[in-house]
Write a structure and sequence with these properties.
By secondary structure, the protein is an alpha+beta fold. Helices cover 53% and strands 13% of the residues. The protein is built from 16 helices and 10 strands. It has a 4-stranded mixed beta sheet, with no helix packed on it. Helix 6 packs antiparallel against helix 7. The two termini are 43 Å apart. The mean pLDDT is 88.
Length: 399
């Protein structure tokens, strides 16, 4: 429990339906824990409802998250710490999501190996609202086959049956495991491992990350057969395939975990950032560098820096140095345009550019047409606000 508390505290997170944050829960548990502990041991403990929160998705829809109370996050985390060492070794080697020592990069590299080996048709399956559609009875049945402890099974079922609070009203949940609790990803792998094992038994080359599953085959006809198999396997688990987002198609250019594969000259298969991920990156950079608010350049970069570093860490596998250079240039170009706009008036632009070492001609030209921020940010500032200048302000590079 102490180890679980450290993890919950490190993860921070919002308060649940009881309104208690991390610090308030710590005080509450000093008096309440003996009663909670007795309830857990006797099987009478009942989790509180989760607080439903909608997270916007790029396609305009929402991903529903269920935020448990901090106390329930603590109990789920402790339960996870006990169950994961028992369950994780039983999962397929082709499953990479929410598992210790595994990450999305492993899934992407495995997919690349299959395509490089000649399996260039992908059966890309997307499950419709997976966490909301999980059948609780089927999940508990699969869990009971792995864990022979009635108390643990009872507690897991209690969490699956806990309601959802919407606009102050608790609603009963008849199916699904709310995405947001520490235990949900492990339970998802318990359920979906059945599909993994059948694919393995049939000798298919596949990779799964959470509810995203890609199977790699040599021909469209073989792909259609695999798609029918998956419809049958998921149907037995009462899960529905999102037909609009699923397809049997070429592996090249198909988005998987934000990446796409492409064929380089000579036949080598390489990794790239998908078009959607690139567009989202530019959109987020624009939002974080919006040209209002009176922030200094250092403040703008401070706001941008964590996002760029996180994006670079995730997409660092991409083998596209030209794209990185273009994005670096575009970000610096945008920052220079912001700097020009902050100076705004012609005399101020002239004075600031001269102070930074610009020639009289360049400073005068920029000052005379001071509202053409984007154009003159390249003409006037790329030799004044240099790469080194942005390095000193802490602006990270992608290259």
């Amino acid at each position: 429990m102490q180890r679980a508390w450290k993890r919950v505290k490190a993860n921070k997170g919002a308060a649940g339906v009881d309104g208690l944050d991390i610090d308030q829960t710590a005080e509450h548990l000093k008096q309440a824990w003996p009663g909670i502990r007795e309830g857990l041991l006797s099987g009478t403990y009942r989790p509180g409802p989760v607080c439903r929160v909608g997270i916007p998705k790029p396609d305009g829809s929402e991903r529903e998250l269920g935020i448990p109370t901090v106390t329930d996050r603590l109990i789920q985390q402790a339960l996870l710490q006990v169950l994961q060492p028992l369950l994780d070794p039983t999962f397929s080697e082709h499953s990479h999501g929410f598992r210790p020592g595994r990450r999305a990069h492993d899934a992407i590299l495995e997919a690349q190996r299959y395509v490089q080996a000649g399996f260039r048709v992908v059966v890309d399956v997307d499950l419709a609202k997976f966490f909301d559609q999980v059948n609780k009875d089927i999940l508990i049945d699969r869990l009971r086959k792995r864990i022979a402890d009635a108390g643990v099974i009872r507690l897991v079922r209690a969490y699956l049956n806990s309601g959802i609070m919407v606009d102050g009203v608790v609603q009963e949940r008849y199916q699904g495991t709310p995405q947001g609790g520490p235990l949900s990803p492990l339970l998802a792998n318990v359920l979906l491992d059945e599909v993994d094992r059948e694919l393995e038994r049939r000798g298919h080359r596949f990779v799964r990350y959470a509810d995203d599953c890609n199977v790699y085959v040599r021909s469209p006809r073989a792909g259609e057969r695999v798609m029918e198999l998956l419809r049958d396997l998921y149907g037995k688990l009462r899960l529905q395939i999102n037909e609009s987002k699923s397809a049997v198609t070429s592996a090249f250019g198909r988005k998987f975990l934000g990446y796409a594969l492409w064929a380089a000259p000579g036949g080598e298969v390489k990794r790239a950032v998908s078009g959607k991920a690139l567009a989202r990156f530019r959109q987020n950079v624009r939002w974080r560098t919006r040209r209002s608010g009176g922030c200094s350049m250092a403040q703008v970069i401070e706001r941008l820096r964590p996002y760029v570093l996180g994006w670079k860490a995730y997409f660092g596998l991409a083998q596209t140095p030209r794209i990185w250079r273009e994005l670096d240039e575009w970000m610096r170009h945008r920052l220079r345009a912001i700097q020009l706009k902050q100076w705004r008036r012609g005399p101020t632009i002239f004075r600031e550019l001269r102070a930074l070492g610009a020639s009289v001609e360049v400073a005068a030209m920029a000052a005379a047409s001071h509202r053409r921020w984007w154009y003159y940010s390249r003409l006037a500032l790329n030799r004044v606000l240099t790469i080194g200048y942005f390095d000193r302000l802490g602006m990270p590079r992608l290259t």
